[in-house]
Amino acid sequence: MHRRTLLAAAVLSPVAALAVSGGRTFASGHTFGFSPDGADFVLDGTTFQIRSGELHPARIPVQYWRHRTRMAKALGLNTIALYLMWNYLEERPGVFDLTTDRRDFAAFIRLCQQEGMYVLLRPGPYVCAEWDLGGLPSYLLRKPSARLRVNSTEDPDYMAAVARYVATIAPVLRPLMAANGGPVLMVQIENEYGSYGSDAGYLEALRQLWLKAGIEGPFYTQDGLGQVVANHTNVTGGAIGLSGGTSADIRRCRTSFPRVPAMSGELYPGWLTHWGEGAFAGLATDLTTALRDLMDARQSFNLYVVHGGTNFGYWAGANANDDGTGYTAHVTSYDYGAPIIEQGRPAPRYLAYRALIGSYPGVTLPPVPEPVPTITRTGNDAPAPVPYASLWDNLPAALPPAQTVTPQPMENYEQNSGFLLYRKVLDGYAGATLDVSSVHDYATVFLDGAYQGGLSRPAVPSAYAAPLKVTTGSRLPLGAAGNRPTLDILVEGMGRINYGHGLVDRKGITGPVSLTDAGPLTGVLTDWQTYALPVDEAFVAALRPVISNPGRAGIFFRATVTLTDIGDTYLDMAGWTKGVVWVNGHNLGRYWSIGPQQRLYCPAPWLTVGRNEILVLDLHQLRPQPIPFEATLVSAASTADGAKLVEQTDTGDPSQQWLLSAV
Question: Which of 17, 444, 488, 516 is the residue whose CA sits 20 to 30 A from 168?
Fold first, then answer.
């Protein structure tokens, strides 16, 4: 046969079997591949059902990796699938971090092995994952003509960066492959490419990079059924994962691709949520029927996600139409309505799914791990921050004038995330309307320090927009000032688009800025002062506690909290407007009063017995509010399934074209 249907993996060296919890042992090497008729996965000569749950180590505190893996195993699963977010591992070109904290994916994979779980590895280079730029590094966007997810003939710089990534990852991965005694059964090539393109040469080039780097597979791809059938975005000899795949979809796929197995590569137990939606999406999803059908047929599946975790820091992505309109950013929580909630406890359907999967022969259910304790502080015990520092008193040196003649996005200044300040003295000012053609993604505007209003790329409700003078258009009337005021436009870059053809989503101001009705100042403004403000952990640690103008928004507030016991908690930011929170230097992520998320998850390992510091940067707030500690992401009154973006089904299969559904 011209296709390899069974990967026979030789044992490279004799090593002792590794004893693990649950009674399973991993031998020094496995054979894993496909049956001769392509119907089944085969492990060590025996038909094997992959019962997988997706976990992302980048979204889970390291101290909880084992707990979440055991929660997945107690559900009746035998495999963990995980994405590698390339941009999390290589934030600057050629500078990789594969060992620090949540970036140590090899440690996570070894932990899965210790817990008796196999692994499906999904290294991209593009992963989507509701993660900033779909996992692609933002440094790729520095080149004005950048193209993403294309072959070297269309953008050699992109493929050169991909080759560097694969060459760096592969040596770490090689000993973790099942053939070499590790738990990794398969490696995915790209992700849902069929909904983006149909260049078989691009996928083959990626496969060849892995082969050249010593990763021989088996490989698989991931697509909606309609996309893989229409665009043939599978790879030679590779299995096929189906997005939203049902038992019937698997059978239909095999009529088109009979030589290799198909599986439900992403079976959705919930859904993703964006800022401004009415409630957390996906809470009403029930997989009972789909799971029963898959178990009855002994077909393989991967719950995407079994536990979502958290988009800590600035890593949450966004969705938009292919032309960039309809931009909606993901909330910080990646709870997803998954069977294991963000904090690691069983969701309402966890026990039902566990009982269903465990009712089939050959499935052993270990005990459900004990939940991680939580702590609360409400009422008079809630932390009460006070003003601590002003962003305006902590500006760095301006960037070189030659680089700031016109407004440029942050990628042009080698900045990955955070904020940019664009400043211009308006000599001869006598009133004007500001026109910013392209704000990515949220701006507050000041004239001689006086707040003028805001510009928001995402839609905001009128109840929010009116009192804060925030517009979703490009024009903002400016008020009275002296004849030489300083115009400041502070821009927050929210998540980069992670799906579709709008991936080239640069942050900051990406077009001309002009004035109208401004007399001699009417026209396009040039010769700016620009300040790079990553507002990362290093920036926050170096804050000078100075507030020269307490009436100017952009204030850091600080609270110190003494704890005698620690536990997981949620910081309730319902009294605040829009900003970012750090606890003991850890960036918990963004909050925004338009909801639906009002509480930010803070894991116990990021707290200490004794003194703890909470730091809040709010873009609008001048007066602080208490920050209660709560035990849950949402209150009992906030669990209804609200408006959500759903997958369009023109082809009869999920294709992740984003449409807003009715509530």
Answer: 17
How far, in Å, CA of 582 to CA of 613, rounded?
8
Cα–Cα dist 592/91, whole Å: 26
Is 192 annotated in the active site?
yes
Rounded distance between C-alpha atoms, residue 14 and residue 260, angstroms = 31
**CA 396, CA 401: separation in Å to the nearest integer?**
14
CA 112 to chain centre: 22
Q: Please name the amino acid found at residue 361.
A: P
Find all residues with CB under 8 Å of 256, minimum gap 6, and list them.
228, 229
100-128 pLDDT, tens digit per residue, is 999 999 999 999 999 999 999 999 999 99
pLDDT in tens, 393-429: 999 999 999 999 999 999 999 999 999 999 999 999 9
Specify the amino acid at residue 237. Answer: G
CB 613 within 8 A of CB 637: no
Among 90, 192, 277, 630, the one annotated catalytic: 192
Q: Please check whether residue 476 is in contact with residue 433, taking contact to mean a CB–CB distance below 8 angstroms.
A: yes
CA 566 to chain centre: 27
- Of the listed 90, 130, 190, 266, which one is catalytic? 266
Is residue 204 among the annotated active site residues? no
Q: What angle do CA 224, 229, 230 make, to 5 degrees?
A: 100
Rounded CA-CA distance 345/492 in Å is 33
Who's near 88: CB < 8 A, 6+ residues apart? 58, 102, 103, 131, 135, 315
Q: What are the beta bridge partners of residue 523?
A: 515
Residue 12, both tokens: 């490279």
User: What one-character DSSP code corresponds to residue 392?
Assistant: G
Three-state DSSP class for residue 653: coil
> Considering only CA atoms, which of 309, 403, 276, 260 is closest in space to residue 69?
309
